[in-house]
Every structure is written in C-alpha cells, then in structure tokens.
Design the sequence.
C-alpha cells in the first residue's frame, strides 16, 4: 500500500480496526500518528503544534535519516536472544520510531498502530523510542489483527530509552485474533531520575501471547511501573511477565497485574524484580479472578535480592470474588449482582492509565460480561 | 389500647456457623428511638448476633425469628434488610481494590458515581476528616481510626432506622472515638433512630447517651440497666459474677 498523506485517505476498514485499539482518528487530541499495516508504514505525521517537540516515522526511514540511530538498535535486546529476535534481526518491515526531543513536554499522546491484514503473515517489526533528557510524553500503541486475516504471527522488537529526568508513559493495547501467535520482545533503559510507566491491556481472545518486557533501572532514582490488565477468554493462552532490574541507587519498581480467566483461558502472570543496589525498592502485586472451572491462572512472582539494603515485596492472590466483599456492599443497599459488578469494575480499574475512550468502553463491556458470568 | 410495636424483636434465635452453634436461643426486645449498649466477653456471640440481624453469611439462623418494625425479616437478604433501614458498621471491613471511598459514599447516598456530593455531604465528610481519602481504595492502607470513621460515615449516609455497631471503639484513637460517637449520637437524636452498640470498653459511654445496656454471656442476654453501672460491675467483678448477681434489672425490655 502506498504511503498516505492524510488519515482520511486510508481505507475505512483499516481505520475502523485502528479505532478499536485506541487510535484517535480525528488526531485532534494526539501529537503524532503512525500506522503500520502488514509490511509497510502507510502513514506517519506529527501534528503541526508539536513540530520541533517530537518525531515519529518508520524505523527504516529513521535509520536512513539518522546514522546515530544504530547506537540504539539491538543495544538492549540481544539479536541471538531467541528465534523470534533472530528472525527480526534477519529481516523486518520497519516499525515505529518515536523521539521526544530534550525538555519537550508533550500534552497529547503520540499514537501508533501495528496492523495485520494478510492471512498467514509473519509481521516483523522493530520499534525504537527515545525520550530525550527532561522530556515528558504519553504513547498509545495498538496492535491489531484485521478480522479477515484470522491466522498470523506478530514478532515485535521494541527498544525504549528513557533518558535523564524524562517521563514516558507507554500504553500498549493488544487486539489479536483467536489464531494469532504473538511474541513481542521489549526492553527499556531508564537513566537518572527517569520514569517509565508501562501499561499493557489485552482484552480480546488471542491464540498465544508470550512476552516478558524488561526495564533496566540503571539510573540513580530511576523508576518503573508496570500495569497489566489481562482478560483471558476463549481458550487464549497468555504468558505475560514483566521484569525490573534495579541497578541504580534509589531505583524503584512497581508492578500491578490484574487477570481474569474464563472459557478455557490459561494465564501465567509473571513478575520478577532484581535488587542489585543496596538502595532500591520494589513492590509487586498480582491478582487473578477465575470465573469458571475450565480456566487456569498461575501467578509467578519472583524477588531476587543481591544487596543487603534491597527492599522487595509482593502480594499475590488468585481465586474467586470474595464473598465478604460482596456481602459488605450488599449491606450498602446493593443487590448481589450490583455488588459483583462493582467489585469487577474496581478490579479492572484502569483509571490510572488514562486510556482512550474506545478502550474504556471495551473495559466496561467486559466488566458487564464477567459480572454476568460470575 | 394499641400496644406499641417494638423496633426489634428477637425470639428464641438459634444461629450456627459452619456447623457450630454460636447462639442458642436468644431473646431480645428493643423498643427503639434510643441507643442500647451490649457488653460481653470475647466469643460470647455478639458479632454473631449482629450478623444474624443483618443476615450476613456464614451466620445461619436455624430456628427462631427476627422481627424488625413488625416485619419478619428472618428470611430476607442482606440487601432487603439494608433497604428496610438496618445498617451495620463492621469491626473488620474488607478492603476492595479499585472501589474508591467516594464511590461507596455515593452509593450509600443513592447517588451515581458521576453525581457530585452536596454541600452538606461535603461538610460531613470533612467533619469525619475523610476528604483526603475520597480517591483512595476503600480501606486499603487505612488505619484503624480511618476505617471506623469511614464505616460510620457510610452508615450515616445510608440513613438507617437501626444502626448496628460492632465495637466502634476498638483500635481507634481517642480523637476518632470522640468524633464517631458524637456523630452517632447526633444522628440518633436528629432522626429518632436506634442503635445497638457492641463494646468492651466504657469510653464510648462518655459520648453516647444510652439509658440501657445488657450483657451477652453464653448465649443469654442478662440485665437491662444503666450502662455505666453495668460497666463498673463488669470491671469490678468480671462477666461471670456480673451476670450471676441477684439484683437483675429487666426494666426496659
């Protein structure tokens, strides 16, 4: 497909799918947009107002434009890490490159969408994000498979750099299909006083996702938060982890994972924190709700301390909705059904993530569905 | 002459929890429009009684009857009882992730989560020193005093006719206790409602004007007398001797 200059000239069927993963089609409340369909970036644009603050383009284009970008490519992830990384190293179709310039405060999110339309496609992308010193930005990226392409593979390597004093809030929304195999490989480097917030939302059925993004908190007082909302249903297999390596003095990590499993879903919710500095702190929270007898959740929290002062804690709970909580709400004039809805809504509370409206609607729809099933 | 209906009437109530009999034939009549204090040692069944009145599982009524304002509520659900005007303040309320105190207070007021609090509601929230907690998940990381203040405020927002308070004075700092108890007293005076208050301690009697107290001991309710008098007796002689005393008063039943 030829690259388009306006989002309005992109075929409607593509835009429709993009909307479902949070892409704001009016672009009014976004600072920049990139659309990568199958093997090509078909659209990339920085909104007028944000020119000089951000850059957004296809990774291949960026590698040509900026020779220095090779210093950022394959620096956080080993090409030889596994067969999926190897494949992306061999050949890739581009991906998104986003750069927030030094000290730029970007009020509206940058958005990108990676889409698969062709059946049996193995999409291989390499994404690079650089949040330069003192910058502040939000990114919403949606990965989606068009319903016509029921079977496909997505391999995505993402390397993210959060430099001194920068703040990057990165939200990834997955919307695959029941026949998609998904293997993202991501790593983030966080420098002094840098903050990285990673939100991951997976609400649609998917055949198999396995990912374990890593955050390297190398900088002094660097911070990372991982928040994940996983709704496993229709035999989805989700193996989702996050790993924080706390190397810097005063570095901090927080991980919050909420999972719901039903209709034969199997979910592994992993979390690993490595305390390698005598002044580091981390907390991991994982909660899982299992709604029927066919599904499965395994929480695997791991805390590794290599220095005496490392302070790492976790709490994990999997099971049904607490009867005590239901009755508590019923003493507040609520019916059992209302109480269950409120608890599930709270459980899936993604308010902190500042998600696009279309995703909040989807979360609400799921809350109602799960409440009914409970 | 029409006999005045009692607010709460409990007849020969037997309650079990997980196959263990916890209340074995309780009788209790409360006329209403005032506060009643209930003393009793740990494990005497006070929480079981309150739970049975509210209908909270796993407390299960196996025989007997609970009448509220002339209506048999023994078989009614927790929701129905709360709608009839019974409200409970839990000793150990649960933490509910993602459900904010403000959401819960609005539910108690019968408002939607998009609705705003009225000026009057806000004043009361501030009086309970809970303004800073509105956006916090209910009870998560709350101190003992904060939990109790949140419990009692929710209760007042529910506008109940009968307030069941399970040890509102346990694990609470002096200031919170004074605040909670004074607000309960004010609510009762202003609305003509009633309260049944479980306590171990006498401090709350400083603020709650209760004419009668009773003692629950081994599934039997003893006495109906001046709370301070009973409290002094318990302190001096212990529960066992207190309920064995000869000058039993039953006025007020």
Sequence:
């Amino acid at each position: 497909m030829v690259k388009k200059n306006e989002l309005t000239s992109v075929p409607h069927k593509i835009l429709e799918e993009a909307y479902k993963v949070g892409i704001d089609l009016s672009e009014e409340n976004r600072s920049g947009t990139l659309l990568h369909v199958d093997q090509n970036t078909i659209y990339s644009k920085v909104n007028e107002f944000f020119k000089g603050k951000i850059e957004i383009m296809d990774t291949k284009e960026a590698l040509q434009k900026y020779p220095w970008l090779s210093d950022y490519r394959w620096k956080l992830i080993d090409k030889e890490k596994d067969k999926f990384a190897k494949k992306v190293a061999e050949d890739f179709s581009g991906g998104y490159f986003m750069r927030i310039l030094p000290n730029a405060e970007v009020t509206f999110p940058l958005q990108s969408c990676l889409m698969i339309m062709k059946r049996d496609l193995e999409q291989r992308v390499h994404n690079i994000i650089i949040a330069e010193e003192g910058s502040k930005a939000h990114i919403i990226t949606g990965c989606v498979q068009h319903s016509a392409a029921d079977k496909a593979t997505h391999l995505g390597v993402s390397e993210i750099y959060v430099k001194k004093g920068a703040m990057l809030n990165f939200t990834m929304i997955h919307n695959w299909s029941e026949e998609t195999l998904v293997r993202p490989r991501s790593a983030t480097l966080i420098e002094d006083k840098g903050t990285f917030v990673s939100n991951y939302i997976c609400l649609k059925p998917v055949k198999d996702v396995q990912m374990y993004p890593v955050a390297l908190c190398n900088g002094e007082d660097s911070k990372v938060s991982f928040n994940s909302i996983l709704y496993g249903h229709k035999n989805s297999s989700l193996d989702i982890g996050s790993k924080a390596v706390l190397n810097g003095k005063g570095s901090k990590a927080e991980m919050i994972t909420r999972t719901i499993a039903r209709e034969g879903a199997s979910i592994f919710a992993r979390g690993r924190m490595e305390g390698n500095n005598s002044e580091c702190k981390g907390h991991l929270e994982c909660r899982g709700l299992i709604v029927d007898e066919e599904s499965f959740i395994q929480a695997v929290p791991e805390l590794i301390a290599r220095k005496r002062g490392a302070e790492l804690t976790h709490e994990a709970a999997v099971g049904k909705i607490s009867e005590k909580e239901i009755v508590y709400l019923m003493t507040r004039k609520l019916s059992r059904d209302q109480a269950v809805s409120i608890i599930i809504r709270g459980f899936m509370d993604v308010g902190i993530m500042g998600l696009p409206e279309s995703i909040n609607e989807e979360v609400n729809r799921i809350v109602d569905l799960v409440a009914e099933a409970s | 002459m029409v006999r005045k209906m009692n607010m709460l009437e409990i007849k020969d109530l037997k309650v079990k929890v997980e196959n263990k009999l916890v209340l074995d034939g309780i009788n209790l009549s409360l006329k209403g429009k005032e506060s009643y204090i209930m003393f009793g040692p740990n494990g005497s069944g006070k929480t079981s009684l309150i739970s049975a009145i509210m209908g909270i599982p796993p407390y299960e009524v196996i025989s007997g009857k609970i009448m509220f304002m002339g209506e048999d509520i023994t078989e009614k659900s927790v929701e129905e009882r709360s709608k009839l005007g019974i409200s409970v303040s839990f000793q150990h309320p649960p933490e509910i992730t993602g459900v904010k105190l403000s959401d819960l207070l609005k539910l108690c007021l019968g408002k939607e989560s998009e609705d705003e609090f009225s000026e009057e509601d806000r004043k009361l929230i501030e009086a309970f020193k809970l303004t800073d907690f509105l956006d916090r998940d209910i009870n998560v990381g709350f101190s003992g005093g904060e939990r109790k203040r949140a419990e009692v405020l929710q209760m007042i927002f529910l506008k109940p006719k009968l307030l069941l308070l399970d040890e509102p004075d346990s694990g609470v700092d002096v200031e919170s206790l004074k605040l909670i108890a004074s607000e309960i007293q004010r609510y009762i005076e202003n609305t003509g409602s009633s309260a049944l208050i479980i306590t171990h301690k006498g401090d709350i009697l400083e603020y709650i004007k209760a004419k009668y107290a009773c003692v629950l001991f081994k599934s039997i309710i003893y006495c109906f007398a001046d709370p301070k008098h009973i409290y002094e007796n318990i302190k001096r002689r212990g529960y066992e001797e207190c309920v064995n005393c000869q000058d039993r008063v039953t006025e007020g039943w």
